[in-house]
Specification:
60s Ribosomal Protein L30, Chain: A; alpha+beta; disordered C terminus; 545 residues; Porin; 35% strand; single chain; 2 domains
Length: 545
């Protein structure tokens, strides 16, 4: 309540002073991106998390961001602000993996310089600590990243006049900036570009140091293990005149910042810095910064992707209909015996039903009325998880009627023991070699399985990017094991999904154990099996040479 009251008082007071006070500027032109973003110097367009709060702080030093220029010679005469140290306290909240709201509390911890006078006004050197203009805003991810296609988002930032005009931390009025961002986040590199139009109050005032401007920020980075190295270029093109004595030689702000970032679990720490290439107000000789962020999930998105949903639906249909690709045997009209008893209700009178207590189709043979059992293992296809491979009964419906280790089930090669890895690593433990050997046997005896994806998944603990890297590394490790044991590498494809496709609740240890898994998804079947490959590519029959 005290913060809200201070904000309200600042807004009302600033508007009441606007008519008589000298309009200056908010000198801090570096606006840190939300703490959820993967860089401390350029913003992202993506939104990660169903309900994910992030918190951070950036300590930014600027050297000589405001220097008076002599009217006659254009030489720099006096640094009105020589040293500026600003602490940004940041918070953001990702909602439904689409929207992000953010807030920035800036505080100038250090402001020093010399008094200066132009032909039209005097400018006193600031000193001491003071609050800056509070920034609130957010963005909406209109286009999600899909493979190499980047994500795109619309954003809006609003600055409330909570700072001090006399210390160059406020313009005395509400500012706002709509923006458009495009970004991509890939395995080993990322990039982001943001175009924003900043609207400053009193942009045409004779005493305003900075007017409204058009801002463009572009950055990129490369990942090496837990480290990210990159940088950004920050530009601002002034669209409203300001005091000539401060910007005679340049109306455009240009800075270059290099960044080194390290991840320690959910915490990221960044060091960044670089020179200012122009000398307009707000552009320092150089800037240095230290930033740290932390993010965590309040809830996890337990819904599977549409692909998983479709696969689950296909599996359910396969179990219910008696096979992965074939529908149930054609059912003939039952003999009209309305007066005779039909205990199992399958439409066939008990006197003609070979299995009067269990419903089954009429096939025109001695087993009329009995459940379909394609593999002859005495487990009806309707409850057989592997209807085409004989196996014993099992209390686990996912293993019922399946051979030991693994079996083809619908659009998957189902495994009945999890593949175990060393904690936090991609090293396969020896205990998992029998089930992998069974997968090799299946692929060798089912040449029609021409393309199979090895999908790695993790639980929801830890950073999303680290989980994604671990899941991919584990999928590659399984793929390598299979190829080393005789499987044609062209039939396999390793994929990693991190924690994005949970099958259980990540809030419990049991659920997290289920989410840490490797799955085998059948992507392509071919009647020719391995012979369907031509020059390394699986092609349809009509296109073969």
């Amino acid at each position: 309540m005290r913060v809200l009251a201070a904000i309200t008082f600042g807004v009302v007071s600033a508007w009441s002073r606007a008519a008589s006070a000298q309009s200056q500027t908010s000198l801090e032109r570096f606006e840190p991106p939300p703490p959820s973003d993967p860089s401390a110097v350029f913003a992202s367009a993506g939104v990660d998390g169903s309900l994910r709060p992030s918190f951070g702080a950036s300590l930014v030093y600027a050297n000589a961001p405001l220097v008076l220029v002599r009217d006659a010679t254009g030489d720099e005469a006096r640094a009105v602000v020589e040293h500026q140290l600003v602490l940004h306290v940041l918070a953001s909240l990702a909602i439904a993996s689409r929207a992000l709201v953010e807030i920035d509390f800036p505080t100038s911890l250090l402001l020093t310089g010399d008094d200066a006078t132009t032909d039209t006004a005097g400018y006193g050197a600031p000193s001491g600590a003071t609050q800056g203009d509070l920034r609130v805003g957010g963005r909406f991810e209109a286009l999600e990243q899909n493979g190499w296609i980047p994500s795109a988002a619309f954003g809006l930032a609003v600055w409330l006049p909570t700072g001090d005009e006399s210390k160059y931390t406020s313009t005395g009025g509400v500012r706002f900036a709509p923006s458009l961002s495009v970004s991509g986040d890939y395995d080993s590199w990322l990039f982001g570009v943001t175009l924003a139009r900043r609207f400053e109050p009193n942009g045409s005032s004779d005493h305003n140091l900075l007017g409204s401007d058009l801002e463009l920020t572009a950055g990129a980075g490369a990942r090496v293990d837990r480290f990210t190295f990159g940088g950004a270029i920050l530009t601002g093109f002034v669209t409203a005149d300001s005091v000539d004595a401060f910007r005679r030689r340049a109306a455009t702000r240009v800075e270059i910042l290099a960044e080194a970032r390290a991840k320690f679990g959910p915490v990221d720490v960044s060091l960044f810095g670089g020179p200012g290439l122009t000398r307009s107000p707000g552009t320092p000789l150089f800037r240095l910064g230290l930033a740290t962020t932390v993010a965590f999930d309040v809830i996890d998105d337990h819904a599977t992707t549409s692909a998983d949903g479709a696969a689950a639906s296909r599996d359910a249909d396969a179990s219910a209909n008696g096979g992965a690709n074939d529908g149930p045997p054609t059912r003939h009209d039952p003999a009209p015996m309305p007066r005779e008893p039909d205990r199992d209700g399958d439409g066939l009178a008990d006197s003609l039903d070979a299995c009067p207590d269990v419903p089954g189709p009429v096939l025109g043979g001695p087993m009329d009325g009995c459940p379909v059992d394609t593999d002859g293992d005495h487990v009806p296809d309707a409850s057989d998880a592997c209807p085409r491979e004989a196996g014993p009964e099992n209390d686990d419906p996912k293993k019922n009627g399946c051979p030991g280790g693994a079996a083809v089930s619908g659009e998957h090669i189902a495994i009945f023991s999890p593949i175990e890895f060393a904690t936090g690593k991609a090293d396969i433990l020896p205990v998992s070699e029998p089930v992998l050997s069974r997968v090799v046997e299946i692929l060798q005896t089912h040449p029609e399985l021409a393309r199979v994806a090895v999908d790695g998944h993790t639980d929801g603990k830890g950073a999303a990017k680290k989980n994604l890297e671990l899941s991919r590394a584990r999928a590659l490790s399984v793929e390598r094991w299979l190829t080393e044991h005789g499987v044609d590498a062209r039939r396999l494809e390793a994929r990693g999904f991190g924690a994005k496709q949970p099958i259980a609740d990540n809030a419990t240890e049991e659920g997290r154990a289920k989410n840490r898994r490797v799955e085998f998804v059948i992507l392509r079947r071919s009647e020719d099996g391995e012979n369907g490959w031509v020059d390394g590519t699986l092609v349809p029959e009509e296109k073969k040479p």
